[in-house]
């Protein structure tokens, strides 16, 4: 049977629970009276079987039943209280004056001692309206799971919505006080799960053993989730109550938890790489909770570099009942906590470890290693965004202070080559990975859509610029003139001209008027500027637009009068710092300080809160680097990038827009003004591909680190030798004057300075190489087995050479204070650079980035998106296959339209193969076709056809607008809830269609369209 009715599916599932999972079948409880979420007789019987006395069993049953059936408070708080007594037990005395005992309604340690049962059609009568869940799962008579089933042609979301509405007070909210797991399923879409009060969009499919394709996915995943031991484990270790929301782990979190448990048992550290937005904080909580409960004498230190995350982690742990938590306010306090036995969980900001000055730092490390801090307990260290914070000094201090600790790093991005140098040293290998493409596929985050925009700039008067330059730099030497030219770059390419910025501001204002998500005020946007000056400039420009009072600037800047005290250049003009200071003092003047925050912190906290919760009131945040990592704002839909970025920074930035939100959020949009197309696709390629280090063993990681240390050590010695050889011929006594004479000659004679220039350039280059080599190996000074004398020599030499470089630069006049020229240069840029209107330069509009990667577009398109490289024939074939699969996927929704698209595609392929079209023209036409396929409609349709369903009807009814609208009205009037599963209701719909089209064959075609558009009919 192709589409069996729900009853047949339900019978099969009931059999599965009994025969394959070993559940007891309690029967069909449709007619049974007094169905409850706690079947007292079953619970008492199980408690007695497990050895509790009758008195204790009765007391436990009464406490569970009373809480399960009370209607005080809201469902979340009742469910949380119930979870607490199920998990931690009921405290009761056998008799007055006796010791309290703990009675566990569910035996979490020995799952086989529990009674697992199911009942079907469980009629619930206590609400105002009766409801009848299809299947209820009981453990020891306590309702812990509800499964709603539908036939294969009914979308799974209808089952989910039914479950959600059952939890309303109007229906049977009381029943869900004990429920932990809610499931919805059918034969075609499989199974989705959530818990109480989970919104439809957050219900997820379980994923495991994907290669297993036997039987229905519904059956497969019921067996995975409801297998007795798995269900007990999931509820016991996976449930988290977080700030008013109950959460269950997603599959990737559950399997990461299981893998991490194995690492922890072996006392081995590692890295959990879960892509941005996939719930790393929750992962930390679940693993932390498990460690504290299962590892004797364990303690956890959670280090993060963001105050927000520090606060969130403390709150979530307290919410899950872990009250022995403390946040440290200083490095000293952190040490005090670690050397005493309490608290068991310490949250700290990462910089609390790095409070030593440069001069005494090495002595401090050496002292720590010679006199280790006597920490108490088995310490596990969790570190957020471990690739970012663990290089250099902090790495050394952590390893010295916490020498016996197990380090577990959490990251949203994989370790690129340069990160592995330090990160794998601290943490070891990957524990578990969950990549960006997997998260998109699972519906955990939104896919990304890319659009490149170019703004051409022209120099309006080269001669004026040249005249100004000569006049202003008349007193400078060649080096100083070059420094000014270098600082500002070729005039045509200076990006921060006022004219260009005004065009971007106009662009964004237009987007807020025309882009559906921004126009509806459900979504908002982030603009990334290149510098604090540019962010402030953008902010000042937005103050003259409709976004005034609806945008904010968030940077690392905090205004102090000292910022501008040295900025006066004697000219009546404003330097960059003075401009920034003025903008900030203006915007902060009316801010009232809250709590112990500064004015800037108060302003930023309010702006972020508004951005997250009231997108219509806070529409745009202008940032430089703050908020580009770890800032979760579901409404954020667009990111405008006006800053050169790559790798981690770029990927983390674009992931600000990929969080799930309301149903109208289809993608996260990246608008790129910096021609970063190649870098964006490269970044996503890295974050979706397998990395060579994923399969490393512990030993291989060790060997790799050893090799790296040797290379770094050799490089440092070589760099030092190079500088020393350049300075070898300096005359005795090798003091400051001797160095100046050798590297500059007579500084008053221009010819001498010119003649010695090559020596200075060689010196500067060699010192830079020494600084780099030194920084690279600094974190490993002790582990790389340098002697104390060698370390002292490296440190002393570094200081000597930095001083030498400054002496030589100043003596030769090869330094310049650019402040004096800043305001003039800004004036020049704003006056003589004119920007054109922005132009979209993405060759393939409206294709998601993952679609682009699947079609291997990044190998076909060079960094400038419209330049094609590689093998044109091969690239064309991949594009065509991608378009064809999209047509097939969408075909049912509008057969006539997609048949037409298929014909157009075939014609284009033929023309390409017969070479009647050149490659550039082919790319243009295929891009236009892709746009039409993605839109699902052609341009120029009547305005009345404002839904996909109406458009599909229009195509089916031979482009007859009146007939389409008449048909739409007839169907909307005739359709009844659940018509797809009910033949009598289907006939009513078909009859209504027939009265309009008067053609039996056409009725079936129209009905198929109605049936396919489940969100509209």
TrEMBL record:
CDD domains listed in its UniProt record: DEXHc_RE_I_HsdR (cd18030), HsdR_N (cd22332), SF2_C_EcoR124I-like (cd18800)
Keyword Membrane carried by entry: no
Family matches, as InterPro entries: Helicase_ATP-bd (IPR014001), HsdR_RecA-like_helicase_dom_2 (IPR055180), P-loop_NTPase (IPR027417), Restrct_endonuc_type1_HsdR_N (IPR007409), Restrct_endonuc_typeI_HsdR (IPR004473), SWI2_SNF2 (IPR040980), Type-I_R_enzyme_R_subunit (IPR051268)
Record keywords: ATP-binding, Coiled coil, DNA-binding, Endonuclease, Hydrolase, Nuclease, Nucleotide-binding, Restriction system
Residue ranges the record marks as coiled coil: 905-939
EC category name: hydrolase
Annotated Pfam families: HSDR_N, SWI2_SNF2, T1R_D3-like
GO MF assignments: ATP binding; DNA binding; type I site-specific deoxyribonuclease activity
Highest taxon of the lineage: Bacteria
Gene Ontology biological process terms, A to Z: DNA restriction-modification system
Residues covered by the Helicase ATP-binding domain: 261-432
EC number: 3.1.21.3
Quaternary data: The type I restriction/modification system is composed of three polypeptides R, M and S.
Family membership: Belongs to the HsdR family.
Protein name listed in UniProt: Type I restriction enzyme endonuclease subunit
Species of the source: Pedobacter terrae
């Amino acid at each position: 049977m192709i589409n069996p009715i729900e009853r047949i599916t339900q019978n099969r599932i009931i059999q599965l629970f009994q025969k394959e999972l070993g559940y007891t079948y309690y029967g069909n409880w449709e007619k049974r009276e007094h169905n409850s979420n706690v079947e007292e007789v079953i619970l008492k019987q199980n408690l007695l079987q497990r050895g509790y006395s009758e008195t204790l069993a009765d007391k436990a049953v009464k406490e569970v039943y009373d809480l399960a059936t009370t209607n005080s408070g809201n469902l979340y708080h009742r469910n949380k209280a119930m979870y607490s007594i199920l998990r931690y037990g009921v405290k009761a005395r056998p008799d007055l004056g006796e010791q309290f005992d703990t009675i566990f309604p569910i035996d979490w340690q020995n799952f086989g001692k529990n009674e697992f049962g199911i009942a079907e059609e469980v009629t619930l009568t206590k609400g105002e309206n009766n409801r009848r869940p299809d299947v209820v799962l009981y453990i020891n008579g306590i309702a812990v799971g509800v499964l709603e089933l539908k036939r294969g042609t009914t979308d799974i979301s209808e089952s989910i919505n039914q479950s959600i509405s059952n939890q309303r007070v109007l229906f049977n909210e009381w029943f869900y006080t004990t429920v932990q797991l809610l499931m919805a399923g059918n034969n075609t879409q499989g199974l989705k799960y959530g818990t109480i009060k989970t919104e439809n969009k957050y219900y997820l499919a379980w994923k495991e053993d994907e290669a297993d394709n036997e039987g229905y996915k519904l059956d497969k995943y019921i067996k995975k989730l409801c297998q007795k031991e798995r269900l007990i484990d999931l509820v016991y270790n996976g449930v988290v109550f977080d700030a008013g929301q109950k959460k269950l782990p997603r599959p990737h979190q559950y399997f990461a938890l299981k893998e991490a448990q194995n690492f922890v048992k072996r006392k081995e550290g590692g890295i959990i790489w879960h892509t941005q937005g996939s719930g790393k904080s929750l992962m930390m909580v679940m693993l932390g909770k498990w460690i504290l409960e299962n590892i004797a004498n364990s303690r956890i230190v959670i280090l993060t570099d963001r105050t927000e995350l520090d606060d969130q982690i403390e709150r979530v742990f307290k919410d899950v009942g872990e009250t022995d938590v403390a946040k440290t306010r200083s490095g000293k306090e952190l040490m005090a906590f670690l050397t005493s036995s309490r608290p068991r969980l310490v949250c700290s900001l990462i910089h609390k470890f790095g409070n030593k000055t440069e001069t005494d730092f090495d002595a401090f490390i050496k002292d720590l290693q010679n006199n280790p801090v006597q920490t108490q307990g088995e310490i596990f260290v969790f570190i957020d965004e471990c690739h970012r914070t663990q290089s250099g000094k902090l790495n050394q201090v952590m390893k010295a202070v916490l020498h016996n600790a197990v380090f577990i790093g959490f990251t949203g991005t994989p370790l690129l080559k340069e990160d592995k140098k330090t990160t794998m040293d601290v943490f070891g290998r990957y524990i578990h990975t969950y990549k960006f493409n997997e998260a998109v596929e699972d519906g955990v985050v939104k896919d990304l859509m890319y659009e490149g925009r170019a703004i051409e700039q022209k120099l309006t008067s080269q001669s004026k610029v040249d005249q100004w330059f000569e006049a202003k730099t008349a007193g400078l030497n060649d080096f100083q003139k070059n420094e000014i030219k270098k600082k500002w770059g070729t005039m045509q390419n200076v990006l921060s001209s006022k004219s260009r910025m005004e065009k971007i501001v106009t662009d964004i204002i237009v987007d807020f008027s025309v882009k559906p998500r921004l126009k509806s005020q459900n979504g908002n946007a982030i603009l990334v500027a290149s510098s604090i000056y540019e962010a402030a400039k953008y902010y000042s420009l937005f103050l003259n637009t409709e976004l005034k009072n609806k945008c904010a600037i968030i940077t690392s800047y905090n205004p102090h009068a000292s910022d501008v005290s040295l900025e006066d250049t004697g000219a009546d003009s404003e330097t960059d710092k003075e401009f920034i200071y003025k903008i900030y003092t203006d915007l902060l003047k009316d801010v009232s300080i809250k709590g112990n925050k500064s004015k800037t912190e108060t302003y930023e906290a309010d702006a972020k809160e508004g951005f997250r919760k009231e997108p219509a009131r806070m529409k745009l945040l202008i940032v430089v680097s703050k908020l580009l990592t770890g800032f979760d704002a579901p409404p954020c839909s667009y990111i405008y990038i006006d800053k050169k970025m790559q790798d981690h920074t770029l990927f983390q930035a674009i992931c600000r827009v990929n969080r799930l939100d309301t149903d109208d959020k289809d993608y996260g949009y990246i608008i790129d003004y910096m021609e970063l197309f190649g870098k964006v696709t490269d970044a996503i390629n890295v974050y979706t591909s397998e990395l060579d280090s994923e399969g490393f063993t512990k030993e291989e990681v060790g060997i790799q680190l050893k090799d790296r240390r040797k290379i770094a050590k050799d490089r440092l010695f070589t760099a030092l030798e190079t500088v020393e050889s350049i300075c070898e011929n300096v005359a005795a006594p090798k003091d400051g004057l001797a160095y100046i004479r050798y590297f500059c000659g007579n500084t008053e004679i221009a010819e001498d300075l010119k003649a010695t220039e090559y020596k200075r350039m060689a010196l500067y280059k060699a010192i830079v190489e020494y600084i780099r080599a030194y920084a690279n190996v600094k974190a490993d000074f002790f582990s790389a087995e340098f002697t104390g004398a060698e370390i002292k020599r490296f440190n002393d030499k570094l200081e000597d050479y930095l001083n030498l470089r400054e002496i030589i630069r100043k003596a030769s006049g090869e330094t310049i204070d650019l402040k004096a020229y800043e305001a003039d240069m800004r004036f020049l840029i704003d006056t003589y650079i004119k920007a054109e209107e922005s132009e979209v330069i993405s060759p393939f509009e409206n294709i998601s980035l993952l679609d682009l990667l699947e079609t291997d577009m990044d190998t076909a398109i060079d960094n400038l998106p419209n330049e094609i490289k590689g093998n044109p024939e091969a690239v064309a074939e991949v594009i065509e296959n991608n378009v064809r699969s999209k047509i097939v996927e969408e075909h049912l929704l509008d057969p006539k339209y997609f048949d037409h698209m298929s014909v157009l595609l075939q014609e284009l392929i033929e023309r390409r193969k017969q070479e009647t079209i050149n490659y550039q023209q082919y790319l243009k036409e295929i891009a236009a076709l892709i746009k039409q396929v993605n839109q699902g409609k052609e341009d120029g349709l009547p305005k009345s056809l404002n839904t996909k369903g109406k458009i599909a009807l229009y195509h089916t009814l031979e482009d007859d607008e009146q007939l389409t609208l008449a048909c739409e009205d007839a169907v909307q009037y005739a359709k009844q809830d659940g018509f797809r599963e009910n033949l009598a209701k289907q006939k009513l719909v078909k009859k209504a269609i027939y009265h309009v089209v008067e053609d039996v064959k056409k009725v079936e075609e129209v009905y198929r369209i109605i049936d396919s558009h489940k969100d509209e009919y």
